[in-house]
User: Fold these one by one.
Assistant:
Number 1:
Amino acid sequence: MGTKQVTEMLKGTLEGIVLAILAGRPAYGYEITAWLRDQGFTDIAEGTVYALLVRIEQRGLVDVEKVPSEKGPPRKVYSLNAQGQDHLNEFWRTWSFLSERLEQLREGGS
Amino acid sequence: MGTKQVTEMLKGTLEGIVLAILAGRPAYGYEITAWLRDQGFTDIAEGTVYALLVRIEQRGLVDVEKVPSEKGPPRKVYSLNAQGQDHLNEFWRTWSFLSERLEQLREGGS
DNA sequence: ACCACTACTCAGTGCTACTATCTACCAGTA
DNA sequence: TACTGGTAGATAGTAGCACTGAGTAGTGGT
């Protein structure tokens, strides 16, 4: 995706994406970035993910644990807590709402 | 939608929504705002829509015609042009990409 | 004259993703 | 030893977009 359309569209959704990842399994920043790039978000900047993780940690949506790595500096492993799960549920509701409106529009109805 | 989740999520998508509306029929700002509110975007601010319309006009995605109104000041009626249609197509591609990733995530698969 | 509805404009604010750069740990190699 | 590359994280500054809040106008009804 060459343009910056996806950049603007990610605002608000990237947080949900990361929370959804963490709902599946605990993960650390470098790993999440790599996974996103693998999934086609080729332009995701590392800084973006780290900043987002700091944000959701400060909001108390995740628990953090420092885990040593064999390959480099220690990892900060994030896992979703109950509050984060609530936030994720709310995210899915909002996403569904938006998604339905857009699907309706795509089919050319007013 | 009480929270501001939808506010952030609209960044990038609201432009596509408005272009999609204009793909169906020409429209003016007040009308678009009213329609959006009717569709459930109850918190959409008028200023937001007007600013967006100015933006897409400056980018040359729409043609504008001033039409007198019986009920108030003249209306600025916007209609999608060829460049706007291209942009809309690109929007749908980006949206589809994002939508597919999220649908995948929702089904809990990594 | 006043009010309500229609219709558009604009300065200032907050949030989020990007850019660019930095620190730091470890392994392999010249 | 010194150097490179992959791993792992942090951060200051920038840009874009939606929101807030206020304002300007035109029309019609009381």
Number 2:
Amino acid sequence: MCHPIHGSCQEKNSPSHPCGCSEQKAPRFLQPFILLVLKDKDSYGYELIEKISEFQFHHSPPDVGAIYRNLRSMEKEGWVKSKWDTKGSGPAKRIYRITAQGEEMLHGWAITVKKRKEALDQFLRLYQSYYKKREKTERR
Amino acid sequence: MCHPIHGSCQEKNSPSHPCGCSEQKAPRFLQPFILLVLKDKDSYGYELIEKISEFQFHHSPPDVGAIYRNLRSMEKEGWVKSKWDTKGSGPAKRIYRITAQGEEMLHGWAITVKKRKEALDQFLRLYQSYYKKREKTERR
DNA sequence: GCATATATGTGTTATAATCATAAATATGAA
DNA sequence: TTCATATTTATGATTATAACACATATATGC
């Protein structure tokens, strides 16, 4: 198996593993979404949950635990770094910023995401050739 | 949680669950690919592995165990049905055919796949707006 | 007979998702 | 000033899934 955040990935620098994640069999995409949101602007767990929900990738908001655990392990791997923000109202926030390494990771993820998207396109084209635009009319 | 092949899906007929799978959080797509291939032509485990590999959805062929276990549970659910084929050379093949229920399932999957694809498009558009076509030049 | 290709399966472990809960801090209301 | 609520971070436990490894059976060609 090969998932960088859990450190079990062999041959991280092989040509087929541009970022250590591109060749995963069945990745979920919480990590790259976190990285992409952070690329735009430093943020923290609670806010990330809201922002990622807007992506409609996750019909329901991503799991709270998953967000925090991912952030921590991503920090351990060096893709992001955090500092406490005690300013502002409410409890202190742990603000995350994407690192240079994290951006490298994001580039790798982009390749993975693109491949996946193309496969889904291929699926949909074939599907539509079998059932001409069925889903337009028969949506319950 | 909601994955039909493992039978843990609550409220299968709710409006947000058109096929019992459309609202999954992070589905992998082996099942719909199997169904789509079967829609084209009856097939069996070993052949499905080859055909699905060609989809380049799975950079490496799908797990052998996953294929057979999925086929068995899909049959239990009624999406496909099988019969032994002893004709031809080599060991007997268990030939699968998609059922009417299976096609309903496939329609639901198509909605899921489309949503997922759109989210990935959204990811890629944002990504490319941050790094103008970086992956074209900096591919290692 | 024996290696090999084809074909179907099972067992186990590693990883990830999900659900439940805890705990701390500020805010506003009673 | 106490109490409920919103915000924020976090952990524990359970289940689901993926990945890897292995086992079995049948034909085919040497």
